[in-house]
Description:
By secondary structure, the chain is an alpha/beta fold. It has helices at residues 20-31, 43-55, 70-83, 107-135, 157-177, 198-204, 206-214, 228-235, 264-269; strands spanning 11-15, 35-40, 60-64, 89-92, 138-143, 182-189, 246-249. It has a seven-stranded parallel β-sheet with strand order 3-2-1-4-5-6-7, sandwiched between helices. Helix 4 links the parallel strand 4 and strand 5 (138-143). The model has no long low-confidence stretch (mean pLDDT 96). Bound molecules: nicotinamide-adenine-dinucleotide. Nicotinamide-adenine-dinucleotide binds next to helix 1. The site of nicotinamide-adenine-dinucleotide has 28 residues, from helix 1.
Amino acid sequence: MTNLFDLAGRIAIVTGSAQGMGRAMAMALAEAGADLVLLDRNAAGIETTAHTIRQLGRKALPIAGDVTATDHIDQVFATVDREFGRVDILGNVAGEAKAGAAEDMALADIRTTFHNLVISRYYTCQLAGRRMLAQGKGSIMSIGSIAGVSSLGRAQSVYGMAMAAVIQMTRELSTEWAGRGVRVNCIVPAQVLGANGLGPRMEADPWLRDTFLRGIPAGRFGQPDDIKGLSVLLASDAADWITGAIIPMDGGNLAMNGGGGLLAPIMERHGQKQ
Ligand SMILES: NC(=O)c1ccc[n+]([C@@H]2O[C@H](COP(=O)([O-])OP(=O)(O)OC[C@H]3O[C@@H](n4cnc5c(N)ncnc54)[C@H](O)[C@@H]3O)[C@@H](O)[C@H]2O)c1
């Protein structure tokens, strides 16, 4: 039987692949057979990811730099053209945000956040998309957030607005490109642990941990590896008719109303406070 999830011979670019969900996505694609181009400003981190991928017998090309620098991204795609001659998969994972009360947010911080999460992702979509359209085939996955669907509060307005733009970017690009073989989808995580700032924030404020967990019916935080299966599915021919999809990866968070919750005995089993 044909393996619908086989990515052998495909070239994938994943941003933010030094750690967290970007690293997990890159590893999943490599385990399914793809060769990887790894982008991150953490040079040592992508070297480590590349080393692990090469041990699987796949090619890995780490290129250190900042995804917000368009001239760097131009150079990356020129290198990929030279080394591989094609791009089959793009994972847009890197990007960070500034937080602050809405009434105090500095314009510079709003611009920085939109540059990180929206403009740089749009730009990599453009460069990958042109090549994929010429090939007649390709798959783009961007990481959004539950913050782009409903409000987190807690001084995250600009992050939420930028992630909402990533979600709409997915709908727009998928609609423009679907008839020419290029699929564009968005993965929408709830709270995922890792070497990101979430752990220290919760250590500083245990109330936050309980609040997050009360919003996740599955009763646990996400782990970076939770993105692996979805990444392979969306990258592969198994998802040939899936485009423009905004897919929660959230332990049920978005399905539950803000006033909803678990029955008391189940909450106790999850170690959650009522
Ligand atoms: N972790 C969560 O709970 C969560 C939930 C929803 C959405 N997200 C989003 O998913 C993405 C990945 O999250 P994570 O927790 O896996 O991240 P992470 O902080 O663990 O890793 C991010 C990686 O991206 C790199 N990076 C960041 N900005 C960069 C830039 N401008 N240029 C090059 N490299 C850059 C970092 O060096 C790091 O290796 C982020 O956009 C985040 O906002 C995260």
